[in-house]
């Protein structure tokens, strides 16, 4: 998934559904939504794309807020936000070829691929039929690590972005009325 979508979608979800959360916290921690992709720099596209990194990084944020003597409420919110932001990254990356959820315990990539197929098998005169083609995919780690180029924006990302913007706007409008 593209960095822009990784960042904007979860932030908009939080702003729309938790409007009373401290905005400095919501925006300040939003960098976590793209943090996992920094493992590209390390040259190992699995180091930060797993459930253990999500937990350890969230605990680290908790620790920072604790050491900074933030209020209990602020610290707890920071912990929840970190968990949400980091997990959202893994969730958005779950398409093909999958993500190394349990790395370093397991070297496999796990993913879910959902496609909607249009078929005109009975001849176009009989109409098109749509059917869902969900599939669980388990791939070898090498498939993920060899993926060097990723699209900056794709159709699915743009559609997802639009849906979230509309949802956000409608919930904001409701509060205004
Ligand atoms: Zn990623």
SSE blueprint and pairings:
Blueprint (H helix, E strand, L loop, with lengths): L2 H15 L5 H6 L10 H4 L8 H17 L4 H21 L15 E12 L9 E12 H5 L9 H22 L1
Antiparallel strand pairs: 1-2
Helix pairs in contact: 1-7, 4-5
The protein binds zinc ion.
Task: Report on the architecture of this protein.
This protein has 177 residues and is an alpha+beta fold. It has a domain at 3-93 and 147-176. Helices cover 51% and strands 14% of the residues. The protein is built from seven helices and two strands. A two-stranded antiparallel sheet has the order 1-2. Helix 1 (3-17) packs parallel to helix 7 (155-176) and helix 4 (51-67) runs antiparallel to helix 5. The chain is flat, with a radius of gyration of 19 Å. The chain starts with a helix and ends with a helix. The model has no long low-confidence stretch (mean pLDDT 83). Zinc ion (ZN) binds at residues 36-37, 49, 89, 93. Residues 36-37, 49, 89, 93 line the site of zinc ion.
The hetero compounds bound to this protein are: zinc ion
Name the helicity range. 40-55%
Q: Helices and strands, in N-to-C order? A: HHHHHEEHH
Number of strands: 2
The rounded distance between the terminal residues' Cα atoms is 35 Å
Strand residue content: 5-15%
**Uncertain regions spanning at least 5 consecutive residues:** none
Rounded to the nearest angstrom, the radius of gyration is: 19 Å
